[in-house]
Design goal:
This protein has about 90 residues and is α+β, with helices and mostly antiparallel strands. It has one domain: 2-Layer Sandwich (Translation Initiation Factor IF3), CATH 3.30.110.150. The chain has 3 helices and 4 strands. The chain has a 4-stranded mixed beta sheet with strand order 1-2-4-3. Helix 1 links the parallel strand 1 and strand 2. It is globular and about 45 Å long. About 15% of the residues are buried. The mean pLDDT is about 90.
Amino acid sequence: MQKSSEKVTYLKAYPLKGYEDIQRVKADLDAGCIVIVRFTPLIKKSLDELSKSIDDIYKYVMTIGGDIARLGEDRIVITPPGVKIFRESGLKY
């Protein structure tokens, strides 16, 4: 059971359909949410718009001190400040 003094962090997942959707990503990060973005719809629409969108999101995340990583072929996970993504280096399978 959650205590009233505990901070809740939400995880949101949604598709990135256009450049205008990055404002939603930024607002969610500002609210402290972790965001998983699927960019398949934007790949089908415009690779230039996709590149511009990802670049803008990346720069914003670095500015606020968050973290960003790729999840498979068509998703990224983006975290707000204070939440870091674990990256295991040197794994050999």
